[in-house]
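for the recovery benchmark. tokens below, seq after
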């Protein structure tokens, strides 16, 4: 089943396992709104992860490579069909990660979002989303692998990220 990926901040979703006492039954805290802030045209950027996740590492590398520094990365994954059943429209659009090919293949926008659709999406993610985290070392490994595979260009990286990637590449280079 193809899934949609959204970059998140895991602590905004901590309530899923243990709902705070101040939250009424059937409701959820407002914290997830910070991860699902729509654009001024009522769109939210997501990434398609194919069946079996063959493109997951590449998507993560492309997203992480666009940050100011190499750091942990949290995401939520949810079944694309569940999102479309809300009904939320998923439209293929160019992404803005550092992996140009991934931007064209796997980036989508959730469009024409209303308050009700956004609420339903948050509830879906809270109930059925799978949270994942890549620590700093794993993120660096993925970016380095994507640079080696020519999916990401060193010149496109911010200086601090580029420096760390170049250091890792030099450490991997055969002595001689």
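predicted aa per position
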């Amino acid at each position: 089943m193809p899934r949609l990926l959204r970059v998140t901040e895991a602590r905004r979703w901590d309530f899923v396992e243990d709902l705070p006492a101040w939250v009424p039954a059937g409701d959820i805290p407002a914290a997830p709104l910070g991860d699902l802030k729509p654009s001024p045209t009522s769109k939210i950027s997501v990434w398609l992860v194919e069946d079996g996740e063959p493109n997951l590492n590449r998507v993560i590398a492309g997203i992480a490579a666009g940050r100011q520094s190499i750091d942990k990365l949290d995401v939520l994954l949810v079944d694309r069909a569940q999102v479309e059943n809300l009904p939320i429209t998923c439209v293929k659009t160019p992404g803005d990660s550092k992996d140009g090919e991934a931007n064209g293949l796997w980036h989508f926008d959730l469009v024409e979002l209303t308050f009700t659709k956004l609420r339903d999406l948050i509830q879906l993610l809270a109930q059925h989303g799978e949270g994942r985290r890549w620590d700093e070392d794993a993120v660096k490994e993925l970016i380095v692998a994507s640079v080696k595979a020519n999916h990401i260009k060193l010149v496109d990286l911010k200086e601090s990220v580029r420096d760390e990637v170049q250091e890792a590449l030099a450490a991997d280079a055969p002595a001689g």
